[in-house]
Amino acid sequence: MNGSSYDIYVLRIGHRPFRDKRVTTHVALVARAFGAKGIFIDFKDNAVASSIRRVCKLWGGEFKVEFVEDPYAFAKNWKLNKGEIIHLTMYGLNLPSVIEVLKSSPKDKLVIIGSEKVPSKYYKISDWNIAIGNQPHSEVAALAILLYELKDKWIYTGIFKDAMMKIIPCRKGKKIVRLN
Ligand code: SAM
Q1: What superfamily does domain 8-178 belong to in CATH?
Q2: Segment 93-127, tens digit of pLDDT
Q3: What is the Å distance from ligand 1's center to 23 Cα?
Q4: Closest ligand 1 atom, residue 13 Cα
């Protein structure tokens, strides 16, 4: 089944403004580039928001960046009214064993990722606790692989509307054209 029948959003929990600025920015950039529609962050960090908005202005596409005061209430509301929840954790089921089930559900998906220890209530509220291998690594890597699979490699073909710049892929050097 084609992964584009549902929309995917990311909920970043445990963002610590000084420590996590760069990682959360990378999470958001990966989310956008790999086809998610937006990110919700549990701490108001204007530096993260403005760097994502700058990227969107230059490279196009609509990507939502919002801050949520109570991420657990947000997740509960998502589950009641919007769709299903996938929590990325090294303790979950390995992705290959469930990817076809995840893709066969047309429901929109909220992907929860942590930064430090994730409270157990998120493990319980999630429809799926999913691992990208049962070893600790990174939320950036885990999110990229999940989106790559759920969105059918959209990263290679996705089009971002109203971009100001476009890259002409080349073997050597850099080629960029200005579109507007
Ligand atoms: N020990 C922490 C925990 O309680 O999960 C690991 C924190 S890790 C630095 C930050 C985030 O990366 C986790 O909350 C999870 O979302 C993601 N992550 C790390 N390893 C993962 C894996 N093997 N599979 C899926 N997600 C992973």
Answers
A1: SPOUT methyltransferase, trefoil knot domain (3.40.1280.10)
A2: 999 999 999 999 999 999 999 998 999 999 999 99
A3: 13
A4: 14
